[in-house]
Amino acid sequence: MKTPRLSPQTLRVLERFIERPTAWRYGYELSRETGLKSGTLYPILMRLAKFSLLETKWVTTEDGVPPRHTYRLTPSGVELVRATFAIQRSALRARRPAFSGGRA
Amino acid sequence: MIPVEFSRRVAIELLRFAIWIAPHDTHEWGQGMLSELNHVEGNWSALLWSLGGAGVLAKHAIIAAIFPGTQRRTVSTAIALTTRSRLRNNFVRSRPSHRRRSPYANAPADQRPSLVGAGLAPPISAAHYSPPTTHCLSRASPRP
């Protein structure tokens, strides 16, 4: 399976998604949580959707307010993100010096 | 004095214009950005949100205009491709073998092949035809 380039900003977005993998998230909500501007966030979302890692849905929230575009990771997206973070964690553990956290 | 609502109105119009110029496959994303604009707190924040979104859509519009069949390329790829093709064209044009004169160079303008093919001019006569030269160094007058 082809995967997109995982930049630090993309990882930040994926981190937010993986906190609640089944929840649908709004663009503005993601922007506030990650601190990314719309010009950075939307290309990331578009790229993730292109690689079928993200699914989109229109939801109606209130009467008179236009429907909102929401996003959620697909099962393959969740799998990829978990694998990526697992690799990162193991790499971090391997880099940690053996004597750190040792008892006197 | 600029009214408070002015910046939000500008933000909406800017994003609408960006959606209008954007390629079809990005319309849904543009509409998503526009719908989020209703929930952005603060008029100036809304304008910044709109500027960012419009920039993304404009980028896609430019790429679609340059590469009509490949709307998914990124700007960096587009720049790389343009530079590469420019370099190649300059190199090819600078080679002498590619600076050939047209075999119809001596023919009158109304007897050039494009007009002949369209049936607008009589076929070229043998008197006006000159065989293709190998490179551009051929001169109008022969060397002494």
Can you walk through the features of this model?
The complex is a heterodimer of chains A (about 100) and B (about 140). Chain A is an alpha+beta fold and about 100 residues long. Helices cover about 50% and strands about 15% of the residues of chain A. The longest helix of chain A has 21 residues, at about 75-95. Chain B is mainly α and about 140 residues long. Helix content of chain B is about 55%, strand content about 0%. The interface between A and B is medium-sized, with 19 and 21 residues.
Helix-strand layout with pairing:
The complex is a heterodimer of chains A (104) and B (144).
Chain A (H helix, E strand, L loop, with lengths): L7 H12 L5 E2 H8 L3 H13 L3 E6 L8 E6 L1 H21 L9
Antiparallel strand pairs in A: 1-3, 2-3
Chain B lengths: L5 H16 L5 H11 L5 H24 L8 H20 L18 H5 L27
Helix pairs in contact in B: 1-2, 1-3, 2-3
- Portion in strands of chain B: under 5%
Largest interface pair = A-B, 19 and 21 residues
Q: Helix tally of chain A?
A: 4
Helix content of chain B: 40-55%
β-strand percent of chain A reads 5-15%
What is the chains' assembly state? heterodimer
- Give the SSE string of chain A: HEHHEEH
